Amino acid sequence: MVEHVNQPGWADVEEYLSTTLVRGGAGMDAVISSTDAAGMPRIEVAPTAGKLLMLLARIQGARRVLEIGTLAGFSTIWLARGIPEDGHVTTCEFLPEHAAVARKNIDAAGFGAKVEIRVGPALQTLPTLAGGDPYDFVFIDADKGNDVNYVQWALKLTRPGSVIVMDNVVWEGAILDPGEDPDAAGIRAALDFIGSSPRLDATAIQTAGTKGWDGFAIAIVT
Ligand SMILES: C[S@@+](CC[C@H](N)C(=O)[O-])C[C@H]1O[C@@H](n2cnc3c(N)ncnc32)[C@H](O)[C@@H]1O
Q1: 132 to each of 89, 127, 222, how far by Cα in Å?
Q2: 139 contact partners, CB below 8 Å, separation of at least 6
Q3: Which stretches does DSSP call E strand in the chain?
Q4: Is the Cβ atom of 111 under 6 angstroms away from ligand 1?
Q5: Distance between Cα 5 and ligand 1 center (Å)
Q6: Ligand 1: does its nearest atom lie under 6 Å from the Cβ of 122?
Q7: CATH assignment at residue 102
């Protein structure tokens, strides 16, 4: 039994798990380099988390994926890898400069035909997606203050059996006492909504590593 767990050890373990199970980052180095080169923030999911998204999409048999928050396309590419050849990812990104970097990365990864990037505030894009086939899988990872709105839109755009994953649900523990932090308050509001929604059955997994102390909420639409 491990008696002492400390933060420096988490990053070492993540490195080992990435190398061993994600196999050295699985060819995603170019996406990380492009993020740095463009001066964009390094707020993409960790490689182990990206692969978790890919595996969840595969396990669920997802064909149609919706992502809110593209950045440079790191998680988008993982999601595209988790769906069949004729599957589709719609990803929403507010900043045109982020979307441009993501477009190049997604095309270079060979998923150009599978991924559509919708540029603009997601709350303006999401209503335009209504009326089409439901999404099987939704990944929420944008401005945290809008998380509860994104979960509510995800419910409108999915079907029973769809999976909704929301990133950053621990936020270094700040969700317990958001105080003046609007991101923590937004995450907390979304978690409270998910936990009380009769249409969602959910849990969360806490994560610790190079991205600090955080976690994913995972819900199924009932
Ligand atoms: C945490 S990053 C996404 C990381 C990405 N999912 C990954 O793991 O590779 C959040 C992204 O959401 C975008 N964003 C922020 N507010 C937004 C909004 N209102 N609508 C759409 N995208 C937004 C940011 O510009 C940023 O690129």
Answers
A1: 13, 11, 20
A2: 53, 65, 66, 67, 68, 69, 75, 79, 165, 166, 167
A3: 64-68, 88-93, 115-119, 135-140, 158-167, 200-209, 212-221
A4: no
A5: 31
A6: yes
A7: 3.40.50.150
Question: Is the Cβ atom of 141 under 6 angstroms away from ligand 1?
Answer: yes
In a domain, residue 2? The reply is no
Give pLDDT tens digits for 139-175.
999 999 999 999 999 999 999 999 999 999 999 999 9
43 close to ligand 1 (CB < 6 Angstrom): yes
- Tell me: the pLDDT tens digits for 183-197? 999 999 999 999 999
Domain that holds residue 192: 7-221
Counting the structural domains of the chain, the total is: 1
165 lines ligand 1 (CB under 6 A): no
Look at residue 1 and tell me if it is in a domain. Answer: no
Centre of ligand 1 from the C-alpha of residue 189, in Å? 19
Kindly report the length of the chain.
Answer: 222
pTM of the complete model beyond 0.85? yes
In whole angstroms, give the CA distance from residue 137 to residue 62: 6
Does ligand 1 lie within 6 Å of residue 166's CB atom? no
Ligand 1, residues 54, 76, 93: which to mutate, most atoms within 8 A of Cβ? 93
Contact predicate 139/153, CB 8 Å: no
